[in-house]
Amino acid sequence: MEFLVGFEINVPEGAQEAEVTDRQHAEASAAARLAAEGRLVRVWKRPLASGETEVLGLYRADTKSQLEGWLGTLPLHEWMNVTVTPLEPLPNDPAAVRPSSSAGRRPPG
After folding, report:
1. Which of 54, 50, 62 is nearest to 8 (CA)?
2. Sheet harboring 40-47: ordered strands across?
3. Is 77 a member of any domain?
4. What is the pLDDT of residues 3-23, one digit of tens each?
5. Which residue range(s) make up the domain with 23?
6. Maximum CA pair distance of the chain?
7. Is 65 a member of any domain?
8. 58, 2 contact by CB (below 8 A)
9. Is the dihedral of CA 69, 70, 75, 79 positive or negative?
10. pTM of the prediction?
């Protein structure tokens, strides 16, 4: 199952710069691990009207609770507002309907 996950990161006032930097590096490593495992498929950033940025990620998980377990282990999790949207494929999804290489050819014989 695929999920669109939105992250808004709110660094607490008074957070030490070294801690923020350490968590950001650890977050990048965690994202790379999830990508290598096929759990994190794509990531985008979306500018918000407030001048801040929202990060959007496309994740694959068996269940929403499994996804939430992974997200709960992220180094920046306690500083995040997270929105999870389950996605369901449409029958006419171009990625699901790929023509075979033999399309349009007559069978031999």
Report:
1. 54
2. 40-47, 53-60, 2-9, 80-87
3. yes
4. 999 998 888 999 999 999 999
5. 2-87
6. 76
7. yes
8. yes
9. negative
10. 0.79
